[in-house]
Amino acid sequence: MQYFLRRLAVFPLVMLGVSVFVFVAIRLVPGDAITAMLGTEGGMLTPAQREALAAYFGLDQNWAVQYLRWLGGLLTGDLGISVTYGQPVLDIILERFPLTLQLALMSMVVALAIGLPAGVFAATRAERPSDLIVRIFAMVGQSMPNFVVALLAIYILSVGFGVLPTMGRFIPFTQDPLGNLAQMILPAIALGTAFAAAVTRISRAAMLEILSEDYVRTARSQGFSQSYVIWRHALPNALIPVLTLSGVEFGYLLGGAVIVEQIFALPGLGRVVLDAILQRDYALVQGVVLFIAFNFLLVNLLVDLAYAAIDPRIRYGGRK
Amino acid sequence: MTLLSVRDLRVGFGKPGHETEVVHGVDLDVAAGETLAIVGESGSGKSVTAMSINRLVDYGGGRILGGAILLDGTIDIATAPEAALTGLRGREIGMIFQEPMTSLNPVLKVGTQIGEIFAKRHGLSGRAVRTAAIEALERVRIPDAARRLDQAPHQMSGGMLQRIMIAMALAGKPRLMIADEPTTALDVTTQAQILALLAEMQDETGMGLIFITHDIGVVAGIADRVAVMQKGHIVESGPLDDIIDRPQHPYTRHLLEAVPHFRWGSAARQDTVRRPETRSAQALSVEDLSVRFPVGGGFLRQAQGYVHAVDDISFDLLPGETLGIVGESGSGKSTTARAILDLVQPTGGRVSGADGHAVQMVFQNPNASLNPRMDVRTLLSEPIIAAGRRVDASALDRMRMLLHKVDLPEDSLTRYPHEFSGGQRQRICIARALMPEPKTLVLDEAVSALDVSVQARVLDLLVDLQRDFDLAYLFVSHDMAVVERIAHRIAVIYAGRIVEMGDARSVLSDPQHPYTQKLISAVPTIERRRVEFALDTEEVPSTLRPLGWQAPPQHWQDHGPDHRFVTGSGA
């Protein structure tokens, strides 16, 4: 518990560092928000109009003032106004995030549901043909870009089975759960395939090592069945590296998945980030990046808590 | 009827059809209530034989190529299907392993691991499981059993874990118990406890016991009958007294003669260097050495206490002399050795004679102490480079000379560590330590990882080198029989402090401090047969002390010209 609180205390420090970094980084990119917003029409603005716009968005101040203003806003939950959307940044994020979160969760479910059993299966049949097949699939799955998986999935469904994935307007889960799931399953598979392949490889490697551990031999000497030994004694020990990988991947997915969102026309966080960067929408970039960083920290903390839940050596500290 | 009879057992490893046979036609018999010891060195096939009896060998990549393993003369385990084997394991045949620290699942509570045996194998549920688990722990004399159930394995000592392992193996009420080197990883006093416990459990249950070991001293203490294994064959077997008093096979004789056995000081070295009349210069002198590790503190936070790993230790060493430091794990003997070389930072005290490269160290595990990517020449060059010197012709001459001294061929220089056996690798480590012409060698369990007969040869080599180079040795070991062979003087260390020190013969034959007496009485020897080891569950006290704790002063008492011990409460 004390450990948990100490970890929480570090949160603001990291967030502060990230905020400075993203604030400076986006301003180092050449170009400015007003030109980017108005495109070629920006050239027709008089200097006075340009200044008025800059003053409206607060871009006429020097960086230090801009930063402190932004920071002050952050503390009150005000992330600023997006230049491109003309909406508060927080509203944009909160509107897009549920979809991104759902997509990330579904991808992880896909990854763990396929990867974990596949990895365990391969490890128990190490160096036999079935192991080899799993390993080839994992290799292919990991090396194939997710848009290829997405296109393949669409192709197979539409050409092979005549079912077209439900695209077009996004259906929120709260409106029509089934429609929403039908719409999300393909993107989740597209994102989850490489993830699943990585989980397969890492759980296979971890299981292989653990199956030769002394305590697995002890469990066998007690006469427990193969499946009991594997699921009850070996797997919990193999979960740590799987958890580490899942945490990193999940945190990454929470930042949005640009290509897959584009292919399936999903209004997620990924496209917002891309647009914001292209448009030099400082407030939006800053807000989203900060939000992503916060998610990463939170996921990391949860992963650490999960470690402690799995392994008493972490819970009570190491051997004397 | 014999409980177990093994006939012409052959076991191999490798791809089906291309197995390399490692056990070549072994015959064994064990009756109920009887203890059969299988003795052999690493690679003799003794563990493979043991693992074949409950067919765990299948999971280690092995296959039974031929022969029969008959339980009650009816069930042939060698050909039984896996489904039948899971029924036999745990219920008919229990097993205890060498490493209690790694043989329990680290992520499951001890209570869960014992409980599941009662739940899964005996169909108990709910409170009955817990009650049964508490009874099982109490049976192996674990105090405070209910609290132990809720602990994780890493919170317990090795001896405690091995008792839990025994409790788990007994939970299935097996009629045959296989113990594969169950005490090798434990301290001698803990070993005595475990042997006592096994003997008592055997009396209680009438089970047959197969005891696998490399230590013929342990065999004498526990076995009814003995089978000696070498290179996959049983070269000799019979009743205990026949094997030890009238060995027929040369290998059995070799094991009995070449291997260091503890002889209560009568095998101690005669070439004493220390004479009252000669005051020669010291090679190494240690005064009031202390090492403490803070516990519970952190960044900007005061420590809550200190582990007093080493407290006010003083001794000196003369050229050509060996001081053996004996004690149990956690006593601080290795920390002492490391502090002398500044490998851990001493908290207090003075070490003189360790300047520059005057002290060199040889570690326990020769496999892990040699960088596998360096050839021997590079390995031997390192101490020269570390001393800031160039690897010139004279350095190369010294390499060749040292390789010759440690009995390795000269062409070793261009070879890599994996091309050598364990004993040869330790010789390389010794040669490397001697490269910068040290005055003192610190040998930390330097022969403990070696096979018993290799141990004897490396000890002989160390004695020769000591004479040739007039070296002082600080020999740290838990093995009394080994220390007896090499030490002129002995320091007994207990909970971070020396409690007895002096002439090896005097200390070993006439120990004065209660701890030394306990330590020596726990050492197995071939003279003592079928010993009733007292079941003493006392553990070494923790050296974790509160802030500001000061070690009480020690009161030393002389016992002969060079032998003194700590008396009274300072003990």
Helix/strand layout:
The complex is a heterodimer of chains A (320) and B (571).
Chain A: H1 2-28, H2 33-38, H3 47-57, H4 63-75, H5 89-124, H6 129-143, H7 146-160, H8 177-211, H9 214-221, H10 226-253, H11 258-263, H12 269-278, H13 282-310, H14 312-315
Chain B: E1 4-13, E2 20-30, E3 35-39, H1 46-53, E4 62-71, E5 75-76, H2 82-88, E6 93-96, H3 100-103, H4 110-122, H5 127-139, H6 145-149, H7 158-171, E7 176-180, H8 188-205, E8 208-213, H9 216-222, E9 225-230, E10 233-239, H10 240-245, H11 250-258, E11 284-295, E12 305-317, E13 322-326, H12 333-340, E14 348-352, E15 359-362, H13 366-369, H14 376-386, H15 393-405, H16 422-434, E16 440-444, H17 452-469, E17 472-477, H18 480-486, E18 489-494, E19 497-503, H19 504-509, H20 514-522, E20 544-546, E21 555-558, E22 563-567
Parallel strand pairs in B: 3-8, 3-9, 6-7, 7-8, 13-17, 13-18, 15-16, 16-17
Antiparallel strand pairs in B: 1-2, 1-4, 4-5, 9-10, 11-12, 11-14, 12-20, 18-19, 19-22, 21-22
Helix pairs in contact in B: 4-5, 4-7, 7-8, 8-20, 14-16, 15-16
Textual characterization of the structure:
- The complex is a heterodimer of chains A (320) and B (571).
- Chain A is 76% helix and 0% strand.
- Chain A is mostly helical.
- In chain B, β18 (489-494) and β19 (497-503) form a beta hairpin.
- The relative contact order of chain B is 0.11.
- In chain B, α8 crosses α20 (514-522), α14 (376-386) runs parallel beside α16 (422-434) and α15 (393-405) crosses α16.
- The chains are: A mainly alpha (320), B alpha/beta (571).
- The interface between A and B is medium-sized, with 28 and 35 residues.
The best one-word shape of chain B is: globular
Major beta sheet summary of chain B: 8 strands, mixed
Percentage of residues in DSSP E strands of chain B: 15-25%
Portion of residues in beta strands of chain A equals: under 5%
Helix proportion of chain A: over 70%
Q: How far is the first residue's CA from the last residue's CA of chain B?
A: 54 Å
Which chains share the greatest interface?
Answer: A-B, 28 and 35 residues
Structural class of chain A: mainly alpha
The topology string of helices and strands of chain A comes to HHHHHHHHHHHHHH
